[in-house]
What we know:
Number of domains: 1
CATH architecture: Alpha-Beta Complex
CATH superfamily: tt1808, chain A
Number of strands: 11
Oligomer: single chain
Helix content: 25-40%
Amino acid sequence: MTLASKRMTLAEYLAHDAGTEQRYELVDGVLVEMPPESTRNSRIALFLLSGFLKLLPFQKISHKDYELVVSGARARVHFPDLMVFTDELVEALSGAARGTILLEMPPPAITIEIVSPGKTNRDRDYRYKRSEYAARGIAEYWIIDPDEAQITLLTLVDGFYEAAVLRGNDRIQSAQLPELQLTVNQVMQAGE
Length: 192
């Protein structure tokens, strides 16, 4: 749901206080209300979070709590489901008053989106965020699609993503988390 028809700049968005706990993404300068997450998607995100915590210090993991500024013709800010930070990004965020990854900061190592039902959500995760995250320099972008029971693992090569579509017992082979030992089935079963 769109909150306002007036387009905002990034500075206006960062200064905006809606006076509510409701979260909003900024899409082409317009505030868009984020609906509550489905139980299935929340379980998948928590399952991955628990696995990542076995491999990384908690400071290097974000679970829907940091917003990510991406470049575009108009201001855009997303709340990815999960992110894995680089050491440089952890340092850049230390002491920050707000959990915002600005354009001048290093990008996360991994950004993960879990596709919510609906064509708009699919287009946003598969098309728009793909190009935005590549332009942002994010080394890996995972698109977890529970409806299709697949994970699209996108790896940044020379400024563009190369895709590997994983299904079933395929192991998630992350260059950023090489010690990760999970299959697509394990991730999908977490959402059941």
